Amino acid sequence: MKLYYSPGACSMASHVILHEIGKPFEIEKVNTKTKVMDSGRDYWAINPKGAVPALELGDGEILTEGPAILQYIADSNGATELAPPAGTLARARVHEMLSFVGSELHKAFSPLFQPGKSDAEKEAAREAVGKKFGWLETCLSDGRAYLTGSAFTVADAYAFVVASWANFTGISLAAWPNLKAYVERIAARPSVQATLKAEGLA
How many angstroms separate the Cα of 123 from the Cα of each of 130, 131, 170, 180? Predict the structure, then answer.
């Protein structure tokens, strides 16, 4: 498999899960502004949506959209701890968290990465992110290690990456101590450390 990524972007979650699986894979960096890859190729030819991540499979098929890629990597490798079996409540809970991170938390951060936004618009976005963080804080307040319980799943990889964007957008996690500890706990995983190094972020 080959992952097309941009350093620190949501594609990092897929990168982490590939490391968790422990099987060989390739990566290629994409400049998300110019849509040109490190090889000089046009990324639009890989993913007509223009976004990362994209996962190229052994038969040349291209899979896009982070949550779909995360679940595919886990499922195709029998990693039932990373993604519980289909039809179980545990799987639905993981999907619930993937949906929240993608449609709520990720979306709330978007204005903070868009050029031309006013200070007032950015502050409103930070407040919106804070509300989403507040919900995660409540989820983690019962002492669970990860979002859906005691096991690290694909949802945690995605949540970790998006929550880490706080570091680049002027948001301190100090107001959410359980979330802060959660992010630090995941950051210490060997798969995350390997990903950060590979993406030039550590």
Answer: 10, 13, 10, 21
